[in-house]
Amino acid sequence: VSGPRADDELGHDGPAAARPLAAMLDRAERWIEAQRYEQAASELERALAMDPDHVRARLLFARVEIGRESWPEAETHAARAVALAPDHPGALGMLAAIALRQGRYGEAEERVLAALRVDPEAAWLYELYGDVMRLAGHQDKARRLYERGLALAPEDSDLHAKLALVAVAQNRVRDASERAGASLAHGAEASLGHTAAGLALLRGGRPFAARAALREALRLQPEDADLAELWRDSDRCCRFVYLPMYYFSLVIGRLPGQFWTLWGAFVLFVAVSRSVGLPGKVVAMVAIPYLALVVYTWIADPLVNLWLELRPARL
Amino acid sequence: LLVVPRVGSPRRARSAARFFGMTASDDDLLRPTLSKGLDVGAFRDPWNPGSLMWIAFFGLVFGGGLLFAENARRLGRPEERQRILIGTIVITLATSVAVGLWLASSGVPTQERSPVRRWRLAVIAVALVLGAWLRRRQVPLFEAYQNAGRKPGRLWPMGLLAVVLGLAVHIGLSALVYAIAKAGAP
What ipTM, to 2 d.p.? Predict the structure, then answer.
């Protein structure tokens, strides 16, 4: 997700002074792309020493701090950039992304809408707004926003992947698989596409294929802790002691009221069987498997935890 | 899974907006959806509303209602907490009075197929239906909280207390109504 650079309008110095500064910022940006944040930070410190009010330098520094997960510092730089250029969609979007990451969804929406008022044709802003809605639990609006983003940038693999994530959240397995496939078709080396494919497979009852897809995503983005946790979850579902629980969860997850509906049906069955005088053997044939299932659902988690202690997950 | 924006040009953006003749306010997709102050950082260790269903199951209307009310506060909805508390008290009173009066009018049965069991199941069913409704209301906020990478609060000490308190209140109130009704009966 990128926009064109416009050093001429963002800097304060004239063209002669801006040239070395621009080169410095270009170098910093390359360091950021390579996730070498320390080198990027030292370039940017020198750049800001030359011009502390340089919007692009502030925004790049915010990206560095995001990369280092130093959210308050990232926010300080982004807020300074917004103060310097209140109509800059990149600055507003950056502040929105930081607010979103910190769980300030209301503020994130406000910022991203302000950015969209300035630039209603920016696909990445629709993607960001979609993220706000998806994480705040408004999946349907998130879907519409990602679709709007895709209309503007049809080849964006991340937008396809995020549509797949929405479909997973809404339990639309086939749609999720198709979207994840489209994402991988547009960017086979994009970690998010593999993540979406893994989640779609996991929701579709294919835990082994899901584990393989998530392993691939983790190979592409090895430092992502959330992804590592997702992969461990998929590995858990592949364990022999947990497989029945995984399939049971898939089935019960589609039932309105989930486990409570099953319990209600069982209570109703017992009540009806008593009033119609069903033989004890018939009642036992239903009650014993039901009780066994209940006990298994209680012990499945500790069992698989114990199993993982004995046979830890290996990438 | 988030977008980290790169630096764009506001001048180009403004000209694009003018070229397409669009303004954000024309588009219903770009109308705000969330309340301005929605900040999960202000939430205080909310419990998973799905787990509270177990408290409603064992602690009945009173036990479950208390924790759903407290969870509303933890999810930053103090006004909803008041409403849930009032509803919990009213429904607890109504169910306990109904059970007490019914037992007083029919006598406490002693045979195996006790109607007390049916009443207990009926009260559990009421608690679960109310719990499911409250869960549905609280799940989106709780998911938003979890999506920000935060962990839910620990339920078990308060949960255990709520179960004991819920059972005590339901049984105590029903017994009290039963005793009053029996004493008043000719």
Answer: 0.74
Look at residues B102, B96, B97 and name the one whose alpha carbon lies nearest to residue B166: B96
The Cα A85–Cα A92 span in angstroms is 9
Neighbours of A18 (CB within 10 A): 19
| Three-class DSSP category at B163 | helix
Q: Which of A51, A129, A117 is nearest to A88 (CA)?
A: A117
pLDDT over threshold 90, residue A128? yes
Helix axes A89-101, B10-20, angle to 10 degrees: 100
Please give the Cα distance from A223 to A173 (Å, whole number).
28
Other CB atoms within 10 Å distance of the CB of residue B117: 12
Contact by Cβ (8 Å): B60, B124: yes
Residue B149 sits at the chain A interface (C-beta within 8 Å): yes
Judged against a pLDDT cut of 80, whether residue B127 lies above it is answered with: yes
Q: Show residues of chain B in contact with A192, CB under 8 Å.
A: 1
What token pair was written down for B135?
A: 């869960």
Distance (Å) from the alpha carbon of A309 to chain B's nearest alpha carbon: 23
- Digit-coded pLDDT (tens) for B78-97: 899 999 999 999 999 999 99
Instruction: Provide the residue type at A220 as one letter.
Output: L
CA distance A29 to B65: 54
Residues A141, B29: C-beta atoms closer than 8 Å = yes
Side-chain-facing half-sphere of A90: CA atoms under 13 Å: 29
Q: How many Cα atoms within 13 Å fall on the side-chain side of residue A134? A: 26
- The pTM of this model reads 0.79
| More confident of the two residues A209 and A10 | A209
